[in-house]
TrEMBL record, chain A:
Function: Component of the MICOS complex, a large protein complex of the mitochondrial inner membrane that plays crucial roles in the maintenance of crista junctions, inner membrane architecture, and formation of contact sites to the outer membrane.
Pfam short name (any one): DUF543
Protein name: MICOS complex subunit MIC10
Cell location: Mitochondrion inner membrane
Name of the coding gene: MIC10
Major subcellular site: mitochondrion
UniProt xrefs under PANTHER family: MICOS COMPLEX SUBUNIT MIC10
Highest taxon of the lineage: Eukaryota
Quaternary structure note: Component of the mitochondrial contact site and cristae organizing system (MICOS) complex.
Keyword tRNA processing carried by entry: no
Keywords: Membrane, Mitochondrion, Mitochondrion inner membrane, Transmembrane, Transmembrane helix
Family assignment from sequence similarity: Belongs to the MICOS complex subunit Mic10 family.
Automatic annotation (TrEMBL), chain B:
Protein name (record): MICOS complex subunit MIC60
Any Pfam family the entry gives: Mitofilin
Function: Component of the MICOS complex, a large protein complex of the mitochondrial inner membrane that plays crucial roles in the maintenance of crista junctions, inner membrane architecture, and formation of contact sites to the outer membrane. Plays a role in keeping cristae membranes connected to the inner boundary membrane. Also promotes protein import via the mitochondrial intermembrane space assembly (MIA) pathway.
Subunit structure: Component of the mitochondrial contact site and cristae organizing system (MICOS) complex.
Species in which this protein is naturally found: Podospora anserina (strain S / ATCC MYA-4624 / DSM 980 / FGSC 10383) (Pleurage anserina)
Recorded coiled-coil stretches: 399-447
Region (Disordered), start-end ranges: 1-20, 59-94
Taxonomic lineage of the native organism: Eukaryota, Fungi, Dikarya, Ascomycota, Pezizomycotina
Biased composition (Pro residues): 64-73
Length: 93, 676
């Protein structure tokens, strides 16, 4: 979260809205990854809780498993996006 | 004809003429009806076989109807046994005829033969009387039947004659008595006369002639009767006189028919006179002659020397000839008879009369001829006059026509001449006009040619003069143009000077606007002014074209801005400075963490790593060497380059603008140098 602040501050120029500035590209990706992690992990937590309530008599582990699944999926997505960006950079070079 | 003549011989005109006429009148009307009756009578007389029928019809008027039935029954009963085997196929004809004969005789026989005979006789007599009466009656109507009846039926003639007599007496009671009374005497005397005189047939002939012309005949008859009454004893001379008179009367009609209209009147008068005179003469002469034989004994002479036949000197006329001929006939007859002495006197007189008549006729003829000749002459004269008049008139008309025609001809000739003269005049006038027009045309052509020549000459002169002046004018204009060129050259120099000055001013203005601004702002106006001032200077144009359009649209960042932004970019680049080539999340996180721990370099640090490059660029920037700083930054690769891309482009823009401005300033300087 600390990285996002300078990114917002560096965008007093109105044109940053339309197209991100080149130095903010990596920060943006990080922001996406974090948000993705939170959403997915919360989703997994939700599923896990529901499962734990319905099937597993309010056990804790289904919830953690769900969070794990969500976090794992977010991580993977972030990784792939970063690698894709790297590939593109290489292509451009 | 034969019948009448015979009858007249027998009865000497006793036969009434009226009766004959009446018979003829009624004949045509009653012929048909009588013919049928006559036939019936003829059939009735001859066949006596009809006796059987007649009594049967009369006696059995009442019982005729009853008898038929019994005979049919009786023969059937009686005949069947007798003739049955002989003729069975044809019983009708065989059976029917036989019954009447036996039945008819059976009935009258019973009544008595004498009675039947008496009846028959009575009927016969009755029919005979009826037939005779009818015959007599019909003979009065039909002539043919009259002949037949009088010839073949006994006592028929007498009965018919008697009836006619009765009829005649009824109609003419006075005449009939006389005629009848006298007839007996004349008939007795006539028998003795005809041998001597032979005048009897003449009388008949005269009678016949008299019949044809009824008017004359009646008169003659009347005269005859009178003569007969008066002179009963002397018969011989009478017929002669009568014949003479009759001859004349008979001849008269012929004369009438033959002669012309002029003579007709005269003759008619004469005839009347004669007709009137003749009976008187006859009456008068007859007593004289009667006396002559008494007195003259030596009149034996005349018989010895018979009367000379009459000879008229001028017997050309047909009438006279006829008269003479008749008289001669009489004379011959008299001579033949030897009674010349008796009639010499009368004959002489007659001769005289005839000769007188002849003379008179001749005189009349001659008079008529003279008159005719006169008339003819007068006519001829008149015709001649008329002809002469006509000829003269025709000649006059011809002359008039000729004169008229001649006048017309002359008038026509004059008219034609006039026409021709007019035509000739017209033609001459036209020819004259034509010739005049031709001459005029020629004159006009000549005039036109002269005018053309004159104009050509004038043109030549004018052009010559013009060329001379024009040459001078051209030289003048050349001189003027040269002067103009000179002036323009001077003007150009002045203009270029002005332009270069303006260019300088413009470039300075652009530079001032760039340096002046604390914030980036567009400098399009300045550039446009510069371009206009440059006025299609290729170098200026190219310089302006090299500037990125976004640069002058948005303006270019200043060096302070660039340095500030570099600091931010450098921090980001340091974060990604340790990243491997195909970095994931983990490597990113590690490089981020590790970059915080890294040492910072100062000044122009040698090395190819990201940290040293960044420090070098920072130093260049601090020095104000944008060009080198950009070159250092451009050497980065990977994530670092991508992150510093924007900043680099900014720097490039600024550099481009600076370069373009430098070029323009040099160009302006060059221009100013050129002018000078």
């Amino acid at each position: 979260m600390a990285d996002t602040a300078p990114a917002t501050t560096t965008s007093p120029t109105s044109r940053a809205v339309s197209r991100p500035v080149s130095e903010a590209l990596l920060n943006e990706k990080w922001d996406r990854c974090f948000s993705n992690l939170i959403i997915k992990s919360s989703l997994g937590l939700g599923f896990g809780v529901v499962f734990s309530v319905l099937l597993f008599k309010r056990r804790a582990w289904p919830a953690f498993v769900g969070v794990g699944f969500g976090a794992g999926r977010a991580y993977e997505e972030c990784n792939s996006s970063l690698k894709q960006a790297a590939k593109e950079i290489r292509k451009q070079a | 004809m034969l019948r009448t003549s015979i009858r007249s011989v027998r009865a000497l005109g006793s036969r009434p003429a009226a009766a004959v006429a009446g018979r003829q009148w009624q004949a045509s009307a009653a012929r048909r009806a009588v013919v049928s009756g006559q036939r019936f009578y003829a059939d009735d007389k001859k066949p006596v076989v009809d006796e059987a029928k007649l009594p049967a019809a009369e006696t059995l008027t009442a019982p005729t109807t009853p008898p038929p039935p019994p005979p049919q029954t009786t023969p059937a009963a009686t005949i069947t046994p007798e003739q049955a085997p002989l003729t069975p196929p044809a019983p009708g004809p065989a059976v029917v005829p036989p019954p009447p004969p036996p039945v008819a005789p059976i009935v009258p026989k019973k009544k008595g033969f004498f009675r039947r005979l008496r009846n028959f006789l009575l009927k016969l007599v009755l029919l005979g009387v009826l037939g005779f009466g009818g015959g007599v009656w019909y003979s009065r109507i039909n002539d043919n039947f009259h002949d037949f009846f009088t010839q073949y039926v006994p006592y028929g003639e007498e009965a018919v004659l008697y009836l006619e007599e009765l009829d005649f007496r009824k109609r003419f009671p006075n005449v009939a008595n006389r005629v009848t009374g006298r007839r007996a005497d004349t008939a007795s005397e006539q028998v003795s006369i005809p041998a001597q005189s032979g005048a009897s047939w003449r009388v008949a002939d005269g009678d016949h002639a008299g019949r044809q012309s009824s008017g004359v005949a009646q008169k003659v008859v009347a005269a005859k009767d009178a003569v007969k009454d008066t002179v009963k004893d002397i018969v011989k001379p009478e017929p002669a006189a009568v014949t003479k008179a009759k001859k004349e009367t008979a001849a008269l009609p012929k004369v009438e028919a033959k002669d012309a209209a002029l003579e007709k009147k005269v003759k008619g008068v004469e005839e009347k006179k004669e007709v009137a005179v003749i009976p008187a003469a006859a009456t008068s002469s007859k007593p004289k002659e009667f006396r002559a034989p008494d007195v003259n004994e030596p009149s034996v002479w005349p018989p010895a020397s018979p009367i000379d036949p009459l000879s008229v000197p001028h017997a050309d006329d047909a009438i006279v000839q006829q008269l003479v001929h008749m008289l001669n006939d009489i004379i011959t007859v008299i001579n033949y008879d030897g009674a010349a002495d008796k009639y010499s006197q009368t004959i002489w007189k007659a001769k005289d009369e005839v000769s007188k008549v002849g003379e008179r006729i001749l005189s009349i003829k001659s008079a008529a001829e003279e008159e005719a000749a006169k008339q003819v002459k007068a006519r001829i004269d008149s015709f001649d006059k008329h002809a002469n008049d006509l000829v003269s008139r025709l000649e006059a008309i011809m002359l008039a026509q000729e004169q008229q025609w001649r006048q017309e001809f002359e008038a026509e000739v004059e008219r034609l001449k006039h026409n021709y003269d007019d035509k000739i005049k017209l033609i001459q006038e036209r020819e004259q006009k034509l010739s005049e027009q031709k001459l005029q045309n020629k004159l006009l052509e000549q005039a036109v040619e002269l005018q053309r020549q004159f104009s050509r000459d004038i043109k030549k002169h004018v052009e010559e003069e013009r060329e001379g002046r024009l040459g001078r004018i051209e030289s003048l204009s050349r001189a003027v143009s040269e002067l103009e060129k000179l002036t323009t050259g001077l003007n150009e120099v002045v203009d270029t000077n002005l332009r270069t000055q303006q260019l300088h001013v413009a470039v300075e203005a652009v530079r001032a606007s760039l340096e002046d601004a604390h914030h980036p702002r567009p400098f399009i106006k300045e550039l446009v002014a510069l371009k206009e001032i440059a006025a299609d200077d290729p170098v200026v144009d190219a310089a302006i074209a090299s500037i990125h359009p976004s640069a002058y649209q948005r303006g270019i960042s200043t060096s302070a801005e660039l340095i500030d932004r570099f600091r931010r970019v450098a921090a980001e680049v340091r974060k990604a400075s340790l990243l491997p080539e195909d970095a994931g999340v983990a490597s990113h996180a590690s490089s981020y963490l590790l970059s915080k721990v890294m040492f910072k370099k100062q000044g122009l640090a040698a090395g190819d790593d990201v940290e040293s490059i960044l420090t070098r660029t920072q130093t260049f920037l601090e020095e104000g060497d944008l060009d080198n700083a950009a070159r250092e930054m451009n050497t980065l690769g990977g994530w670092a380059k991508t992150l510093s891309r924007d900043w680099l482009s900014e720097v490039r823009k600024v550099l481009e603008v600076q370069q373009a401005l430098d070029v323009i300033t040099t160009e302006a300087r060059l221009q100013s140098l050129k002018v000078e």
